[in-house]
Amino acid sequence: MPLYALLGFAAGLPFYLFSTVLALRLQAHGVALAVIGFFAWVQLLPTFKFVWAPLLDRYDVPGFAHFWGKRRGWIMLAQLGITASTAAMAFTAADTSLPLTALFAVLLAFWTTTLEIAADAWRIELYPTQDQQGPIVAANLWGYRGAMVAAGSGALLIADAAGWTAAYLAIAAAAFLPFPLLVAGAAQPGREARGGRWAALAAGLAAAAVILGAVAIATAVLGRLALALAASAGLSGASNVTPYVLALCLLPFVAMAAALPRIRRATPESRLRRSAALGPYVDFFWRFGGAAIGLMAFVSIYRMGDVLALNLAKPMIKGLGYSLSQIGRADSLVALAASVAGVGAGGWLVTRAPMPLALAVGAVVAGVGNLGFVWLAHQPVGEAVLYLSTAADQFGNGMAGAVFVVYLSLLVNPRFPGAQYAFLTGFAFLLPRLLAGAGGTMVGAIGYDGFFLLSGALSLAALPFLPWLARLRPRADDMGGA
């Protein structure tokens, strides 16, 4: 549990730096609200982690893996990527070039997600049952949310006193702290004879420099291409992108429905099911069949309200007249205590209650937390009401998050823990983050009150699925899986 609290801390530190803290930074530099909304699409990257997750199950990181093993090797590489990307965001904190800001934010999201893939795969391998998952998920989320709160509030307090560059450099330094602890860890059993600690570290650092550089260049090229395509399509900060986003949201369901008949007929010897790249995802649809469509709809909706609220909550609060320091204080001890309590309650609940009941309680509490922003907007400016709404939001978010992580972990075939969990968590946030990118244009159309009423209602929209989910049973694995 302490180990997974540390891994959660390492993954949680960067999150606000490419989401809510970045939104406030862009607002401070006069960037339009619609463009700030577009930056929420940086958070889309984790939803596509299933694209590279099989690489983490299949390949080792040169050098690091020779002494510390596959999982810790990837975690160490990701730590270096997180630190480098955060430092790069610090040195471009003036935001004079928004494409450059976006590049480093995307790289930070990529390496943060890579760390999560490796840690989640290891967790599912070690703790496969619901009773085992509850405590370890709680420990992981305590570290994750504690780091998110520390980074979010700390960055705002430092930015108010010393500027955005100092804030991002401070978080970059904190993000690097787990790396030496990992280096000091024991060798992976069976790897001790494959070279000493320092030889493995030197080789790993050399390989990491090459990998980080290659990923940065590839991201820059793809980003430039994406911007050119958007410009050629006539999209700009003044465009109403909501209809296009809603159309994109339907495409994954159409694609899955078209592929299901062939997948369900596939035999254990089928190349489709044995493919290293596609096999883990084909297995999921083979086991659940047509029910997979409804299951994907449920996981897409369950956290949608929280994701929609995340990116624009801080700009709304700032617009009400609160200072960065006031927001930072609310996001420190108040948010941390509420988040820890919510995660603990969710972790405890899944060990005591049937999963459908736990999911229902989490959805209701999260919805109430989102509606608290509507209440806050109609109160006189004061730290007491800000603390109360922040606590309600963080408690509900933490509780629903803990329950949801356990539920998704139980859907995974233990033969493919990294790839399938990456797919499920990625798809769970694909639609919400697509819509979140259009949040700025939504606020322009329906106002902040309407936007946060919508986010609260969406948290409750998953409830009608629960009686059906309680009866859902997958087809037994016929390829030797658990």
UniProtKB/TrEMBL annotation:
Name listed for the protein in its UniProt record: Permease
Presence of keyword NADP: no
Compartment(s): Membrane
Domain of life according to the entry: Bacteria
Keyword Acetylation carried by entry: no
InterPro entries: AmpG_permease/AT-1, MFS_trans_sf
Bilayer-spanning residue ranges: 33-52, 73-94, 100-122, 165-186, 198-221, 241-263, 284-302, 332-350, 357-378, 384-410, 422-445, 451-470
